[in-house]
Amino acid sequence: MMMKRQLTILGCGLLLLSASCSSFFDVDADDMLKEEDYIGESNELYSGYMGIAAKVQDVADHAIFLSELRSDLLEPTANAPQELWDIYNHQPLEGNSFADPRGYYAVILNANNFIHKAFEYRTKYPRAVDESHFGPLVSGAIRFKVWAYLMLGKLYGQAAYTDAPNVKLDELHTIPVLGMDELVNRLIQLMEVGTNQINGQLVLNWGNVLFPGVNAADQDLVWNMICPSPEPLLMELYLWAGQYSRVVEIGIPFIYDNGGNRYKIGNDDYNGEWIQVFTRNPVTKTRVLINIVPFDFERNQTNRLIRFFSNTYPSVYYLRPTEVAMNRFRRQVRQDGHTIGDFYRGENYTFVQQNGDWLIRKFSRDRETASEIHKNNVHIVLYRDADVHFFILEALNQLELFDEAEALLNGGINLYLSTHAGNLQYPFNNEVWNAQLNRNWGIRRRVDLGPVYPAGLSKNDLDTPEKVEAYKRALDELIVEEILMESAGEARSLFAMIRMAKRWNDPAIVADRVSAKFNAGMRETVRARMMNPQNWFVHYPL
Q: Would you indicate the residue range of the signal peptide (predicted)?
């Protein structure tokens, strides 16, 4: 019986991973998991959960186009439809399919239905429910919901909030809307408290469910990567909430990883290895990747990244990198102190010139010939090693732990431990943890770039509150500049700009960077628009 159930669960998952035969993948945004879909078999708990994951696939590339066009990385090509030009030019977006938030709400409403029906099913058939799986399944549904709401908040600045089941998409306009601050607080409560005594921090090991008795190295670890992990999701929420100590308290143990080799920003991923996490088998890259949305060409699953970024047929080449973004990589100074250019993240890695056009290459380095490029299995990253390090260093900066923040940005914990021997400060003063944290090379050192520090300021001369605040702000802006390179094309940079602009009450942090990609005639118009914080977000009626 147990073997039969495992095979059935695996079949449910393969349906998710096979668009050709999956009702969960081939759905439109109005499809919900309805009452009759729960047919009285406990395997429906698993298939219902996978149905939520399928909804995430539907919106996985959405934020990349919507945020990177409104940040400074992307601009449309002459091939691009008007809808993409309207996003780029910050025009009204009502009715624009690329700006429609309904896909995120589909994730949320499916999660609400799943949570409601899961508890209802357990009450009705208590002996049919595996309690060791039930809690983590509900917890995972909570995290899918929290992730989708956080994306809505970051993109739209607000969201219609509901925990109720059986709500339809065309009823969203009747639901109360929460602004970003209130939304973040509500999501933190969901993660910490949850519903019916199940919070958002329980994790199911899918390898043990699907492949019991199989060595962990041989289990299909992608299954464990499809739902946002509790730690990075909570870290990001706490960062938006200004709870900086909590970010560090969660983040350092997470990258310590019980003494494991994951998430270290180490020299394992030095040089060309850095780029492979976006193009190669994700199971082999779990030391970098935390959570992904997987796709499989052989099962008729694709996202739009290759089609939109490549100029090789059958791609459509809708989007290209901007000059201002490419020049940021080109002016970086390497570790030797004089060679210019980000050699391992810049040209030929993040972007490349091909057939006379500049294009984003970050996601297409695996297969690039005309006959193969459309077959790339491009997974979309929800969280990876650099994300949690940026969260931690941003929090350390706000806690005025400048040496420690700069260690993560520049030379790494490895160098910090050697130069601060006898004077180690929190959070790098745990000798047991340091044995593993010593593997950390820092964001810039990993790609052979030299350190950067706030210009014209010294940590040895911070003798007034004003100087401390000036240093803190300058380091924040260096963090943004690094995110623009490290996380290019991953839908990160605009949100970091917004967070810091709010923190310092200075819209220019957003406006100056976003407007810089436009020609002189348009630049001041866009800058003036972005000086109004209301215009940082997409306005789209529900």
A: 1-25
